[in-house]
Amino acid sequence: MSAAVSSDYRAVIGLETHVQLQTESKMFCGCGADYAGDEPNTHVCEVCLGMPGVLPVINRKAVDLTILTGLALNCRIPENAKFDRKNYAYPDLMKWYQISQYDLPLCEAGHLDVVTSGRKDRIGVTRVHLEEDTAKLSHVTGSDGSPASLIDVNRSGSCLMEIVSEPDITSSAQAMAYGAKIRDLLRWIGVSTANMQDGELRIDANVSVWRQGEATGDVKVEVKNMNSFRALGRALDFEIDRQSRAREAGQAIVQETRGWDEDSGLTVPQRTKEYAHDYRYFPEPDLPPLLIPEARVSGLRLRLPRMPDQVAADLVAEGCPAGDVEELVQDRVLTEFALSVVGEGVMAKDAVTWIVHELRRVLNDRDVPSGQIPLQATEVASLLVMRGDGVVSSTMASEVLDEMIATGASAAELVASRGPQISGEEELLAVARDVIGENPQAVEDYRAGKARAVQFLMGQVMRVTKGKANPGVVSELIRRQLDGVE
Amino acid sequence: MTIDRDEVDHVAALARLKLSDDERETLRVELGQIVTAFEALADVDTDDILPTAQVIPLVNVERDDVAIKSLPRDEVLRNAPRVEDGQIYVPPVLDETS
Amino acid sequence: MGRDLHCLTLHAAADGLARGDFTSVELTTALLDRISSIDANIGAFLTVTADAALSQAAAADARRATGEVNRLDGLPIAIKDVLSTAGVETTCGSRMLQGFIPPYDATVIRHLRTAGAVMLGKTNMDEFAMGSSNEYSAYKVVRNPWDLGRVPGGSSGGSAAAVAADECLAALGSDTGGSVRQPAALCGCVGLKPTYGRVSRYGLIAFASSLDQVGTLTKDVSDAAMLLGAIAGHDSRDSTSVDTPVFNYLADSDDGLHDLKIGVAPQYFGKGLAPSVGSKVREAIGTLVDAGATEREISLTHTELALPAYYVIAPSEASANLARYNGVKYGLSDVNASDVDEMMAGVRAEGFGSEVKRRIMLGAFALSSGYYDAFYLRAQKVRTLIKDDFDAAFEQVDVIATPTAPTPAFELGSKLGDPVAMYQSDIMTLPASLAGLPCISVPCGFVEGLPVGFQLIAPAFEEERLLRIARLFERFRGDMEAPAREVDSL
Question: Greatest CA span in chain A, whole angstroms?
Answer without folding.
Answer: 96
